[in-house]
Amino acid sequence: MYKYIMKRVFAIVGLLMVMMSCERGKVEDTPQVEIKPIMPEKVLNVAFLIVDGVYNSELVAPMDILHHTVFHTEKGMKVFTVAPTKDPITSFEGLRILPDYSYLHDVLPQINVLIVPSAENSMGKDLENRELIRFVKSTGTSVDYVMSLCDGAFVLAQADLVDGKESTTFPSDIQKYKDVFPHLKVHEGVSFVHDGKLITSVGGAKSYDPALYLSELLYGKKAVEGLGKGLVIDWKLSDVDYVKIQ
User: Fold this and answer.
1) I need a surface site. Which of 64, 101, 152, 175 has the fewest CB within 10 A?
2) Domain extents for the chain?
3) For the chain, how are helix, strand and coil distributed in percent, rounded to 5?
4) In whole angstroms, what is the distance from residue 90 CA to residue 86 CA?
5) d(Cα 128, Cα 25) in Å, to the nearest integer?
6) 99: region left, alpha or beta (phi > 0 left; psi from -120 to 50 alpha)
7) What's the rounded Cα separation, in Å, for the pair 87 and 83?
8) DSSP string spanning 75-114?
9) Max Cα-Cα span within the chain
């Protein structure tokens, strides 16, 4: 009788150990992404830099997300556009936009987040525009976050905002990005890279990803789930390929 009881005890203990081992394996095989939200104490001003030839998707996608934060958290974001002048800006696809502010002539509100969408000439004459690059550099050094979409990374790099940091850009332009800025460490095959206050994205339809990520970083999971639901986006950070440096 004693031997039978001991066998049953050992069997039960063995079964429990197997179950515990399986549970540990499930946790290890499915890493959870946890972000402790910052929860800003004030409304953040978000400036979208627009120039002629700006691409619709890289402008509208993050603007949609960040603007809607006001409906999902007490202190969301106030978004506005900044351009060289207040003359209409024509996007690459033909959308005509009236800028809210001119960085050449207006006194701008304090900017907490600077967004630089890609434009038709982000790899060309925009890099030679001294006033544009001067504005990006002076603003980018003082903001809490600076984000580029697609080839907007070229503009940030030209303004020295990517020096010492890791980044990415539009997939088919990565080699040119490396050629123009050979001192930079560039990631391929990811949606976005977050290094310090710098967030760079591949752009296109994935332009929603860095904006949703920043919203989750600032306002938490509940807020970003509401943002995703409102825009019919099944957002799960654990499903996104991205790089976070620090």
Assistant:
1) 175
2) 1-30, 44-244
3) 45, 20, 40
4) 12
5) 54
6) beta
7) 8
8) S-EEEEEEESSSSPEE-TTS-EE--SEETTTSPPPP-SEE
9) 94
Q: What is the DSSP letter of 123?
A: T
The answer to whether 70 and 76 are in contact (CB under 8 A) is yes
196 Ramachandran zone, left/alpha/beta (phi>0; psi -120 to 50): left
The closest alpha carbon to 153, from 143, 163, 142, belongs to: 163
User: In which residue are the tokens 């024509």 written?
Assistant: 90
Q: Which residues of 80-108 are buried (b: 16+ CB within 10 A; e: fewer)?
A: bbbbbeeeebebbeeeebebbbebeeeee
Q: Looking up tokens 């978000």, which residue turns up?
A: 46
Residue with tokens 């099944």: 234
Q: Flag residues of the chain having pLDDT under 50.
A: 1-32
Phi, psi of 29 (to 5 degrees): -75, -20
Q: Which two tokens stand for residue 167?
A: 């980044």
Query: pLDDT digits over 8-57, tens only?
Result: 434 433 433 433 333 322 233 334 467 899 999 999 999 999 999 999 99
